[in-house]
Design goal:
The protein has 329 residues and is mainly beta. The chain has two helices and 20 strands.
Length: 329
Amino acid sequence: RAETPQEQFNLIGAGRRNLLSNGDFQVNQRGNGSGVSDAGYIGVDRWRGFISANSTISFTQTAFANGQSDVDKALRHYLKFDWLGTSSTTTKILSQRLEDVQTGNGQKVTLSFWGRTEHADDCNIGLTQVFGSGGSSTVDHLSGTIDLTTDWQYFTHTFDLTSTSGKTIGTGSSLRLEFIFGPATLNSYFEVAGVQLETGKVATPFEHRAYGEELALCERYFQKVPIYNESILGQAYSTTAARFPIQLPVQMRATPTLTVPPPGTSGNSFKPLSSSLSWPGGTGNNAGTALSNRHFYITCTSYSGLVAGNASTIYSASNNIFITASAEL
């Protein structure tokens, strides 16, 4: 049936199969977190949380006992998606957004995963083609109800995706996978492992990728730049300001939004050092400038005691300080 090596790979399912990133939940740059309402990206990379009322959901990257899962010996982690203090009408959604709405265009795509809940909660699986602002209308594909229990079970579902031929693709388009929990048990959680989305109508074994490869896939959307003591070198361009170039290791999806620690000499803060390796004076201001999806500057202004033309380094108050760059969908 195959005339080329590529056709052979397609027939036997060789090569990269999982369209999702971090389906085994091994990358957790943000750390475990919680949020309310449309909580957004609060924890484990590439996974997004939503809750429809002012209640709390949380993400926890959880290690399997003895470091391995009984359902797949190579799986090390699962995600615990927890909701607390919810009302009887609250909707909870765990999702991942793929940036290309044309993924699986007009084809069958199959989802597979292991899941369980604290109680016998029902779940709907949604795969939504969102054509974005100015684009064609959203197309929803729903699975029907999946009955979860307190035991790990393996689930698969195949979707027939609508062809995008003739559709208008606007800004903010995406293909969205969603685990949807409606007004069910008030306080419960969903635990999920080995999530895979692939083209075709048959679920294949979970594709295990090396941590470095999975991290690079996640860094297209979110990166942390560590500030370890004097690790970032730049130059003062006046007596009050210095600039530090940052080259990102992975090109991001779009120009990111930065979170930059404030000026200070303790806690989550940093300052540029003077040529004598001492703290400068002044009120100080730290900001990202000249942003692109691969490069930006950290520009430090409103200081005093710097020497124009001299080298400077960013000095952090501790070894656990980061600049974060986010280009999430």
